[in-house]
Amino acid sequence: MALLEVKDIHKKFGDLTVLDGVDLSVDKGDVVSVLGPSGSGKTTLLRCINFLERADKGTMTFEGREYDLHSASRREIAEIRSHTGFVFQNYNLFANKTALENVTLGLTVTGKKTKAEADRIGLDLLEKVGMGNRFSYYPSQLSGGQQQRVGIARALAAGPDILYLDEPTSALDPELIGEVMEVLRLLAKSSVTMVIVTHEMRFAREERSQTFDFTDPYAYDHAVIVTKADNDTIHSFADLKGLTTANSVGSTYAEMGSENGANVTNVPTLAETMELVLNGTADATINANTSVQDYFKTSGTEELKVAATDDQVTEYAIPLKKGSDNDSLREAINKAIAQMKEDGTLTKISEKYFGSDITKE
């Protein structure tokens, strides 16, 4: 029997359907990677199965007991959360608490552990994630990667049966991503059950136990900021602080705006985000460069521009169901991708539809 099984989950925001009959099954010890383009509902799925959002419809069986994802009671939700841990994109640490206090607070407030017992657990976990020598530091004294490692230790403190991680590296500078991914690799090797929303294809390939196999990447993408053409104040993501961005509901790019201090206006479509920038309601929008270039090409607008580009790379690859039956197919596709790169076919397609060559990292 699966540790967690979700069936027929649905979620809409207004008229926008985000989840439409999604199923998910997780066995004990699995590392399940949830992959897909931004705005496809990955974060929403994770939030619904931990009741941070209410699904419109769906059932969840957890450790043999069935729950209604739409109408579960507060007691049922509390019962489920006592068996789960959640790692957020933007850490969500208490600024007035030390690293150790952030990890142990949940144990002491609920009365599950004495302070001495909680401190012992907290110190052990901080040591496990490489933060043992920073136990007395406050979040403001820690780098983003260090804060996220504290967040992982906090999520593990109550000994959850399953750990949910919502793009745990998306808010980090490229040089800090590796330290968090190394912690996740160690957890995977320790048979910690995880469901992780991630763009880290390398991790998904290395640690997956139930996901897709992927072909070699055929294209690469970056998040970009789009502003009006005459905007001369936004040159980097840091410049978004205090400004207004327009983004698709529940997308990674909406989170990026929030993480950089912007006030985010959520709308259903890319075209609507562009309209809000054009009419001055929003200062900027964040989206994938490929989507932006396609919009520029089809709309013909010259009133907008790409003002800044994120350094983190997203790889595009073709998913195939895991299993030896698809090994020969994946090999054939990889050969085709290599040939199309070599003879320039992919470059021509890229330039035709996106206005630039996105086949090189």
How would the blueprint of this fold be written?
Blueprint (H helix, E strand, L loop, with lengths): L3 E10 L2 E11 L4 E4 L7 H8 L7 E6 L2 E4 L5 H8 L2 E4 L11 H11 L5 H14 L15 H13 L5 E5 L7 H16 L4 E4 L3 H7 L4 E3 L4 E3 L1 E6 L15 E5 L3 H8 L3 E5 L2 H9 L5 E5 H11 L4 E6 L4 E3 L2 E3 L5 H16 L2 H10 L7
Helix pairs in contact: 3-4, 3-5, 4-5, 5-6
Question: What report would you give on this structure?
Answer:
The chain has 361 residues and is α/β, with parallel strands linked by helices. Among the domains are: 98-158, no CATH class; 219-309, D-Maltodextrin-Binding Protein, domain 2, CATH 3.40.190. It has twelve helices and 17 strands. A hairpin with a 2-residue loop joins strand 1 (4-13) and strand 2 (16-26). Helix 3 (99-109) runs parallel beside helix 5 (144-156) and helix 5 runs parallel beside helix 6. The longest helix is centred in the middle third of the chain and has 16 residues, at 174-189. The protein is globular, with a radius of gyration of 22 Å.
